[in-house]
């Protein structure tokens, strides 16, 4: 006949509430009840100690609790792992080796199964014991314990892997920041009537391993709580390099909403003339408090900083950004400009955004222009500024300066001499 506690466990494991339940705690409780034991616990073997990580011991919490530890020489774990004791002991006094151990005075019945990681390494033990012998315990009970121990080992292994991955990622990002393994390239923003750069967007590049797109570095930094630090480093570096740009040539830096509302964000601009600085906020990042975002930007915009909404038309937040933040610049996303000359829907949406910008006093910049046909179509729609491989690829600042007209470069040489 099935044990109700086992049925309850299996039902809860597949229920919605099980996602919020602690599988390890539930497994210990279920097995302890099924075996009619006093105590169940999961231990981790650390050096020569058994450290209790999870404990189910109703009424005995003062005697055994998470965090307690015992020497492996004083408990059964090591001897079970090394084959001197069996995993199942219905009556510990009948096991000659166990009978000679002091701990046996307090333990009458004992079941213990190793918890192994995927690589075979022993993490610890899944154990149940009672003060009195339990002669009814048999191989079937041991197999049930092994089955639950397998589930627990899988859960512990997944948690450990997640923790190890987290530590590895955080170490990698910390190393990247500490060793300045980030460089900046600058892509021109072009006046489509003169085909001359009027500004540059700064874009981060990473030299560390693994080699991957910049957005994956920022995504990983966000995963480990260092996204703001990495973004601030990119902004500071961009502004330092952009100090050599001629007056009237803008530099755009990218910032997520989370960075903008961070108290450190405003400090980055201390002492700078903000007239030629543009902050681009990506449309793909969801904002919970537009008021806080606007308040963080207001003192900087009062000093001349311009606000751009990046990737407009490519995500879910664009309308809210444009309506609530009153941007100076709206940048059409590459998903909207790509093949705009052959797609009536894209053309209509781009035209609507151009009209919106003209009526609200914002400038439009089309991103991702890669063909002459796209450029011609966008100009016909009233777009006067653009960015993309057709107009200029990202380059180191020294090379980006070569894209400027000769008089701008001469002025810059005089300014930095």
Characteristic terms for this protein:
single chain, 417 residues, alpha/beta, Beta-Lactamase, TIM Barrel, eight-stranded mixed beta barrel, six-stranded antiparallel beta sheet
Name the poorly predicted regions. Answer: 15-21, 413-417
CATH-derived topology of the largest domain: TIM Barrel
Q: Based on the structure given, which CATH architecture of the largest domain is correct?
A: Alpha-Beta Barrel
Shape assignment: elongated
Counting DSSP H or I runs of 4 or more residues, the number of helices is 15
CATH domain class of the largest domain: Alpha Beta
What is the strand arrangement across the widest sheet? 7-8-9-10-11-12-13-14
The CATH homologous superfamily of the largest domain is called EAL domain
Count of individual beta strands: 14
> How many discrete domains?
2
In words, what does this structure look like?
This protein has 417 residues and is of the alpha/beta class. The chain is built from 15 helices and 14 strands. The strands form 2 sheets. The protein has an 8-stranded mixed barrel with strand order 7-8-9-10-11-12-13-14, surrounded by 4 helices. Helix 1 (4-13) runs antiparallel to helix 2 (23-35), helix 2 (23-35) runs antiparallel to helix 5 and helix 6 (214-223) packs across helix 7 (227-242). It is elongated, with a radius of gyration of 32 Å. It starts with a helix and ends with a helix. GO terms for molecular function: cyclic-guanylate-specific phosphodiesterase activity. InterPro entries: Cyclic-di-GMP_PDE-like, EAL_dom, EAL_sf, GAF, GAF-like_dom_sf.
């Amino acid at each position: 006949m099935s044990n109700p506690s086992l049925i309850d466990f299996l039902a809860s494991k597949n229920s919605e509430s099980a996602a919020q339940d602690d599988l390890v705690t539930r497994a210990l409780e279920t097995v302890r009840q099924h075996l009619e034991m006093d105590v169940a616990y999961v231990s981790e073997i650390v050096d020569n100690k058994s450290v209790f990580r999870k404990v189910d011991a109703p009424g005995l919490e003062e005697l055994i609790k998470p965090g307690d530890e015992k020497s492996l020489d004083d408990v059964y774990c090591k001897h079970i792992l090394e084959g001197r004791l069996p995993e199942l002991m219905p009556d510990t006094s009948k096991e000659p080796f166990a009978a000679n151990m002091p701990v046996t005075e307090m333990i009458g019945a004992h079941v213990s199964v190793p918890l192994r990681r995927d690589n075979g390494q022993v993490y610890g033990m899944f154990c149940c014991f009672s003060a009195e012998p339990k002669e009814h315990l048999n191989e079937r009970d041991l197999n049930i314990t092994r089955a639950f121990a397998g589930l627990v080992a899988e859960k512990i292994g997944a948690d450990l892997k997640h923790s190890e991955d987290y530590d590895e990622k955080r170490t990698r990002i910390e190393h990247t920041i500490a060793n300045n393994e980030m460089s900046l390239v600058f892509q021109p923003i072009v006046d489509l009537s003169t085909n001359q750069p009027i500004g540059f967007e700064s874009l981060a590049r990473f030299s560390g391993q693994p080699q991957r797109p910049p957005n994956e570095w920022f995504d990983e930094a966000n995963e480990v709580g260092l996204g703001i630090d990495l973004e601030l480093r990119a902004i500071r570096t961009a502004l330092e390099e952009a100090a050599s740009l001629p007056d009237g040539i803008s530099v755009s830096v990218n910032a997520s909403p989370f960075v903008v509302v961070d108290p450190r964000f405003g400090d980055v601009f201390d002492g700078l003339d903000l007239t030629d600085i543009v902050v681009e906020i990506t449309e793909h990042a969801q904002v919970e408090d537009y008021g806080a975002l606007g308040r963080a930007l207001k003192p900087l915009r009062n000093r001349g900083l311009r606000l751009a909404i990046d990737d407009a038309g490519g995500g879910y937040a664009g309308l809210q950004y444009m309506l609530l933040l009153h941007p100076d610049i709206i940048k059409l996303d590459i998903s909207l400009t790509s093949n705009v000359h052959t797609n009536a829907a894209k053309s209509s949406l781009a035209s609507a955004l151009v009209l919106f910008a003209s009526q609200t006093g914002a400038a439009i910049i089309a991103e991702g222009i890669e063909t002459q046909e796209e450029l011609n179509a966008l100009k016909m729609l009233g777009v006067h500024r653009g960015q993309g491989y057709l107009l200029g690829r990202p380059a180191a600042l020294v090379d980006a300066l070569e894209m400027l007209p000769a008089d701008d470069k001469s002025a810059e040489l005089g300014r930095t001499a």
